[in-house]
Predict the structure.
Amino acid sequence: MKKLLSIVLCALLLAGLFVPGTAAGRFDDGAYASVLTGSDFQAYGAEAYERFGRLLTLMKNDGLETPDSMLVGGDYTKLLFDYAAPGISQIRDQLTAVYPEADRERVVCIQGNHDNPVSGFTKTGFYDMGVYNLYVINEDDFPWLQGLRPGVELHVKKVAADLEKHLNDLIAAGDTRPVLVMTHLPLHHSSRVLYSDNLYASYIFNALNAAGRTLDIVFLFGHQHSGDYDDYIGGAVNFMAPGDTIRVPKAGMPGENAYTEETLTFTYTNCGYIGYTNNNNTETSTDALTLGVIRFTDDEIKVIKYSENGFFREDNVARKNKVGGVSAGGVTLFSAKLWALENRIFTWLFNLIAKLKALLAF
């Protein structure tokens, strides 16, 4: 009987060998890669890291394949104390507990305003991630309370100039892979500007908005979860698409109306707050705690959020550049897509072997 069950199970599993994907639902969209996003794991205990695991499991149960990587936008505090080093380890542990085949080293973590510098933070700068390009900016390089820190404006200008250089290099090389840019602080105007929070955001915004005319850029941020600062743009879940209007702080002017209205050329969204929020829950604002995932298809970039109730929201942006461009490093997007397909096949085989081992041990 045991042998018969093994044969039947093998037959059923092998019958689905050439069926693409694992779910005929939320994630059955032909995407060739997924990037998880989350930030602000602040909480008074372990619940934020446990919540991350639950949100990840919900995504997997809905068919999300092994993610290519994860971007974490800072603030790992626990009981109001700095918790960055153990927090990063817990995030990686939760990821590999749900997805055993996930690469822990492709969890990119940056510094938030509640974090002391640790070796686990990815340094500010540009990174070739294979299926996409990445530029990260740590808290020390784009800090909060900017108006209270001497020399910050010049430093932010230097970071923005380096960002602009790398974006222009991509354009010159014909590298049309998506570009993800992540900082802890946002670029938009809010009441936090009144005490000089992100006074010099315009320098980074200008670099992105110029390159966004050519490149498919997604900007990710955290930080704004502790009050109702962002209720005017959605609360705890923010999303703006190219063509939308954004309020950008006037450099060095911490005023309630000290902003300019600019038309976005790039996608603008928060990572997804994991720990807590103090936003209001209204018709135009939410206080939902969410985990994000960005998915790349040939024609679209999809930004999806999950709460503990499951699927929360999806926003799609048409790509300016279709799959097929060549990167500065000589890696074609077709190669990146093929790598992602190979990864899905490996994941399927990994799960198949695990199921067979469990059955034979029964």
Notes: DSSP finds six helices and 14 strands in the chain.
